[in-house]
Backbone:
């Protein structure tokens, strides 16, 4: 694996102008994400983790510094279909079937009908939803809906998957299951994944790199390269290595708060 | 369904009973006058004596004349069976092309209503699309749309008729214009709400796919607005009918349910007024029901039903 950064942020700043005056959402964020990394962003509310992800997706415009995605501006990277985005809510259109929802980005991007059908089959299989294409979203459980939304983000073969607390609204049992599934998916597809979460175990279990952030202003306080192997059964969470990383994340979060 | 039959029958029976009961004080004075002329003993005697008396007191004093209040030719309030008989006579017992036929007048009103509704809802949808996509449209059109609905339609309808007839437009079109004037507003309001119903997240999502404004409209905003659209169309079609009726009052064409209402009141033909009124209500109910059926069909196909 070549270590060319897929996402590179240099001295990234973002200040929102609000009615209560300027709010610094991101300050001096420096980060490199390599191809195939699974990077988690963790921190309390307002630490800028979601904002940073939105900057990568060109949904927010940084006010300072540099940000490149695949060596391009985020805007250009979007046009080149560099990433798929998964939000906290599945955001499936209730008037479209699951297959229809997954086709949506393909229709917008102008794929042919046959290719649309092929791709839908492929990604449904990837997220273990084969045979559910004709169902409507309300006929599926919350976890299945979120899997469908991941399938939708994978449908157009973006190299990067950006996930903003995708499992935040799900219960812990479903969440564990989806975490496991996500790791398998990541191993199969070799995507680069940016993953925002509130949960320390989730971050440690999933990531090759954990970015700990703290609020006011949003900044990175620690970047932890995980020594855990790529193969991770769920019970890895009881090993000393796992607990040690979790401890370090917790320390990082606490250090961030000490600034207040 | 079966369990609902009894309560529904009870409610309808209560309404009819109230109606019959209301006929008694409403029509009692005329009934007493007629009875007295024909030699019956009524209490108190003499039209002049009764003139300023409460109709309720008169009704209480003369139970024998109650049945006379339900069969008069020109009652103040016709009884339900009189209205039904008149409706039947004016729809089934005359040729549908006759000027005495409510089918004929109903069709005149319906055609203007449908044209007006088509213009009004089409205009409403277009305005809503403009308002949602352009801040300038939002600020310039919306206040006028709201102001237009605060003007009493009765005041503006004759002006529209006069202005349009001065440029040679008569008959169907002026009525349709008034009808459109009333029906576009609920459609604008509902459609604006509907087109804006996608959440910021929905909009961010299509943005990450670099969707154009047109794609966002056709694939997200428009389908999301469907439930709102149908709710507005139901209000719109009823308003449309009201607009046509109001337009028929001053138009002087001698046709349409509005004209029947007006001519009935000229000649004191209360039964005719009420039958035209019920024909209008039935027409409105049918129009709303048709939109309701379309709504069910479309939303079901969309998986929203």
Residues:
């Amino acid at each position: 694996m070549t270590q060319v950064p897929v996402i590179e942020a240099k001295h990234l700043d973002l200040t929102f102008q609000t009615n209560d005056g300027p709010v610094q959402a991101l300050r001096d964020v420096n980060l490199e994400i390599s191809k195939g990394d699974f990077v988690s962003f963790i921190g309390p509310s307002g630490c800028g983790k979601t904002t940073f992800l939105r900057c990568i997706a060109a949904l927010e415009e940084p006010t300072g510094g540099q940000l490149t995605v695949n060596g391009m501006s985020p805007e250009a990277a979007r046009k080149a279909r560099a990433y798929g985005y998964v939000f906290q809510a599945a955001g499936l259109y209730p008037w479209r079937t699951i297959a229809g929802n997954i086709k949506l980005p393909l229709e917008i991007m102008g794929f042919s009908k046959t290719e649309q059908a092929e791709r839908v089959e492929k990604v449904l299989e990837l997220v273990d939803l084969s045979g559910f294409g004709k169902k409507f979203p309300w006929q599926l459980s919350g976890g299945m809906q979120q899997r469908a939304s991941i399938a939708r983000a994978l449908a157009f073969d973006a190299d990067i998957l950006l996930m903003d607390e995708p499992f935040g609204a799900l219960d812990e049992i479903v969440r564990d299951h989806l975490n496991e599934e996500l790791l398998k998916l990541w191993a199969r597809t070799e995507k680069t994944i940016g993953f925002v979460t509130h949960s320390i175990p989730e971050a440690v279990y999933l990531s090759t790199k954990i970015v700990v952030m703290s609020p006011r202003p949003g900044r990175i306080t620690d970047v932890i390269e995980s020594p855990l192997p790529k193969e991770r059964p769920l019970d890895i969470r009881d090993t000393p290595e796992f607990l040690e990383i979790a401890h370090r994340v917790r320390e990082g979060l606490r250090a961030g708060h000490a600034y207040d | 369904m079966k369990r609902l039959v009894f309560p529904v029958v009870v409610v309808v029976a209560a309404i009819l009973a109230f109606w019959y009961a209301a006929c008694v004080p409403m029509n009692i004075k005329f009934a007493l006058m007629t009875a007295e002329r024909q030699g019956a003993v009524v209490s108190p005697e003499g039209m002049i004596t009764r003139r300023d008396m409460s109709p309720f007191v008169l009704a209480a004093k003369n139970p024998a004349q109650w049945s006379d209040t339900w069969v008069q030719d020109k009652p103040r309030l016709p009884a339900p069976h009189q209205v039904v008989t008149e409706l039947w006579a004016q729809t089934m017992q005359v040729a549908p092309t006759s000027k005495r036929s409510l089918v004929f007048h109903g069709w005149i009103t319906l055609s203007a209503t449908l044209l007006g509704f088509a213009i009004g809802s089409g205009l409403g949808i277009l305005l809503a699309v403009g308002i949602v996509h352009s801040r300038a449209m939002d600020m310039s059109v919306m206040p006028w749309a709201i102001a237009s609905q605060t003007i009493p339609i009765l005041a503006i309808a004759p002006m529209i008729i006069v202005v349009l007839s001065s440029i040679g437009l008569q008959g169907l079109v002026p009525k349709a214009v008034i009808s459109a004037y009333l029906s576009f507003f609920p459609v604008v309001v509902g459609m604006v709400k509907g087109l804006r119903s996608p959440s910021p997240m929905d909009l961010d999502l299509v943005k990450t796919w670099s969707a154009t404004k047109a794609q966002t409209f056709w694939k997200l905003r428009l389908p999301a607005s469907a439930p709102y659209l149908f709710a507005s169309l139901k209000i719109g079609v009823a308003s449309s009918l009201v607009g046509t009726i109001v337009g028929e009052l001053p138009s002087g064409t001698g046709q349409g349910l509005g004209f029947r209402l007006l001519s009935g009141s000229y000649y004191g033909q209360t039964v005719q007024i009420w039958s035209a009124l019920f024909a209008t209500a039935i027409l409105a109910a049918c129009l709303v029901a048709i939109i309701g059926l379309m709504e069910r069909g479309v939303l079901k196909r969309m998986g929203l039903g």
About this structure: The mean pLDDT of chain A is 87.
